[in-house]
Amino acid sequence: MKKINILHIITxxxxxxxxxxxxxxxxxLDSARHNKFFISxxxxxxxxxxxxxxxxxxxxxxxxxRNISLWKDLLSLVKIISYIKRNNIELVHTHxxxxxxxxxxxxxxxxxxxxxxxxxxxxxxxxxxxIVKRVYVFLEKITSWITTSFIAVSNNDINKxxxxxxxxxxxxxxxxxxxxPPVEAYQEKxxxxxxxxxxxxxxxxxxxxxxxxxxxxFVRMALALKKQNVDAGYVSVGDGILRKETETxxxxxxxxxxxxxxxxxxxxxxxIPLFDVVVLTSLWEGLPIALLEAxxxxxxxVAYDTDGVREIxxxxxxxxxxxxxxxxxxxxxxxVLLQDKTLAMRMGNKGKELFEESGFKTADxxxxxxxxxxxx
Length: 376
Known about the structure:
The chain is an alpha/beta fold. It has 2 domains: 4-178 and 361-372, Glycogen Phosphorylase B (Rossmann fold), CATH 3.40.50.2000; 190-358, Rossmann fold (3-Layer(aba) Sandwich), CATH 3.40.50. 40% of the residues lie in helices and 17% in strands. It has 14 helices and 13 strands. It has helices at residues 17-28, 47-51, 70-86, 97-109, 130-144, 155-163, 190-193, 215-227, 243-252, 268-271, 289-296, 327-339, 341-358, 362-372, and strands at residues 4-9, 34-40, 56-60, 91-95, 114-119, 149-152, 172-174, 202-206, 233-237, 259-263, 277-280, 301-304, 319-322.
């Protein structure tokens, strides 16, 4: 059987769901049936993992940036076209917004017949300026004309795309993330490693410190609970452009011993099992892997009621859903779970049950993806 030359493209390799998924797919693809290629900017904590992928040719493209830059975007387009032609790429699979637009047009201009795009949450959202949103919708709409298939990780993303006339329903395929089995937490002085007293419960969030994730709301929630004399430690895993602003708020409230910012970590899978309650304050989402990881570890969740979040968190069943921005409600639900350990355990176990029933397995994900990869 002739091998298919397949290229995956993503903007950068920060520690996020889209990045993990892209690397998981290219790594799991059968090397006996595919020649595997991968393009990204050399930026992010997952670069080391990419460099050590077995049987994958990795090309780091420095011009590939998240922010719009006409010159760098054009240069990225030209370089990707050249790379595709040089390596006789037959199928291109893009991830993330910038790589999704530039990569798909490069594939089209290079003559690639099968072009697939994974939607890890759309490039536009309701918090954008209306004019900016219309530009992003327009770009997604015209790029859908050259897209063979869309892979959506949530039904919300499918409905949102169709609502904005991005492609046709027949182009969309729902393929949930394939997750690795949970690992054991650190065993000795585990909470101390997070900067939390061993006797305290831990409320944690895994998210980039950027506007989408609204990390300041997590801090405000922790401060509200502190004022209510709720004894707990608060841990945020992740980094980003709001780091300084987040640190300033924590310092202003003299809460540096209560709220820990761990930054980027490569051991997230060992940290989540140490949390007693998992929080997510995202304003919009595709399907947050951090919450899937929490469910696989039987952790109760308190999250903002947004997009794909409501597809995995069932209010009152495996956690609580809160209207975005309602800090007091967020704090009160976390307080309930911290004070009612029986309820917290029941919700956590139900979350694990829902996770296992929903089939977030790598084998299932890859079976569906490889079906899209068959030559036409």
